[in-house]
Amino acid sequence: MKQTNLYNEDVKAALAAFELPWQQLSGKNILVLGATGLIGGCLVDMLMQHEGLDYQVYAAGRNEERANRRFSAYLDSGHYHFLPFDVTAPLSVDISFDYIVDAAGGACPQLYSEDPVGVMKSNIFGVDNLLRFGLQHGLKKLVYVSSGEVYGEGDGRVFEESYSGYIDPTTVRACYPSAKRASETLCICYAHQYGIEVSIARPSHIYGPFFTENDNRVYAQFIRNVLRGEDIVLKSKGEAFRSWTYVVDCAMALLCILLKGGNGEAYNIANEESNVSIRTLAETVADLAGRKVVFDIPDDASHGNTTPITKAVFATDKLEALGWKPITLLKDGLAHTIQVLL
């Protein structure tokens, strides 16, 4: 995949749409964990493409080859650095990071059955390793990228940050939401016990280009289908209802939280104009590519590691109070994603 002008235009449009106190980053070192993932990668793009770039960006991940491909446009910049790092291990570098955004943590559903222990460790150990390092190296703030899955199954209501729904901790599938919940609490405990500043981001379902080849979330599967010239086959009625957010809007939200978010506060990231069912999502992707949706529902539809959450939509008043608003509609964001990947 190549970083195309269309995607860069989206990034620059988002940067131009919001007034942020960028001066806080002047001369600072910023570490982005999960940099080769969907959200972390877009955040690196935002930081590197800001016109007032006068800080150092450290993109951390386990795969340097992937990072070099993903961030090829920045390799000759004196402001970009790749840091090989597995968050489950202590961070051992002679660099003081002023700001850290932890967007690592195994969001691929396939991992929930194949490596649930790794999913939990990458979140809980990651937060602990980063904050312990930060305490010793003058960290100003950490933003932990959690998940809307912390709200559990829900009861049909719109999720506000104060809500806490039901999660069955005795299931393997609970590895992800339980790890996110525990990591959020660990952040708050560090803030309370050691006086370190943290904010928490809870993204809804995020989509966009540059997802990894192993990403088997539904939107990625749908896009792969149509790019191969295939129809989209649904194994259910597609009634699950979700909030979807374009990755560029999500990355801008993270910057708002980093620069303006309150200490110890959590913020939902979602686009209320992009709340749709899985079926509608599939139909939108198919229509954009001139394909169709077909149904092949097995007699036993309870298969795989499917989330039990039937409705997940989010209130964003708290984040919008910081001055953030999503600027990309679902159809436009999906169209741009498909065009970038063609």
From TrEMBL:
GO terms for cellular component: cytoplasm. One of its GO terms (biological process) is D-xylose metabolic process. This is NAD-dependent epimerase/dehydratase family protein. Pfam families: Epimerase (PF01370). Keywords: Decarboxylase, Lyase, NAD. One of its GO terms (molecular function) is NAD+ binding. Its cofactor is NAD(+). Residues 30-270 form the NAD-dependent epimerase/dehydratase domain. InterPro entries: Epimerase_deHydtase (IPR001509), NAD(P)-bd_dom_sf (IPR036291), UXS-like (IPR044516).
